[in-house]
Amino acid sequence: MTIKIVVVGSINMDLVTSVKKVPIAGETVMGETFATMPGGKGANQAVAAARLGADVSMVGCLGSDYLGDGLLEVLKKEGIQMEAVKRVEGSSGTASIILSEGDNRIIVVPGANHEMTPEWIEENRKYIEESDLLLVQLEIPLNCVQKALEIAKAANVKTILNPAPITKLSAEIIGAADYITPNEHEYQTLLEDFSTADLSAKLIVTMGDEGVLFYKDGKEVRIPAQNVPVLDTTGAGDTFNGALGVALCEQMEIEEAIRFANKAAALSITKMGAQNGMPTKDMLEQFHD
Length: 289
Ligand code: RIB
What we know:
Helices cover 34% and strands 26% of the residues.
């Protein structure tokens, strides 16, 4: 069975520096390593789903710069359909990532990702309509998020909204999503405008080393995190979302789907970079913590 997933989302180049001590204002410190690595929440989720066997297409924007050339090639090599990714004048999205003491700090400059328009999504609506599931995040303009969700809903395509990075969301956007996958911090922000009761039927909260929380028949259920050696947590949430999309399309029950996605996310953090550690189906089947 071929699963078709469409990702409407961002594509970034990650500029990753590891350092023992994060400098304070006015201070210069010596870092340890630097690397450029493909990233962006949309692209990461697309790669996660593609590695797990889905037929993935992306709707997005890349800049006219050399970063855009490189990112396009990487995603094509992953087998992702990139025809609905427009090249626009200017810089591609970037994320400056500082890795220190087992944690990351990220500054995203959206660049081309914020050149996306609802018209571009409308022009490419067939990619959404022909898919089994839509994955969408918040590194693109909100009117594009809304448009993508509307098209999916009208075509009976399942939707996962990963509300990252979190911002104020309308009731329309929340209402159009079948699943909402915040982390703990994003969940707290959502609770400023929505109640747990509004959200619980569609809510899956990722909580890092504390596992995943969701609601089954109105009752809270927690799935523990897998025990793995952690190298880099960047992209763990994206791996979770991509894998969750695949599992739901494979008709797994929600709890089984979350366990599947949880395992994929665990494997992803054992390697450096957002996309490097994302597992294939075989790797996932062989993994026991
Ligand atoms: O979720 C991780 C991603 O967030 C990174 O790859 C970075 O590009 C930022 O978008």
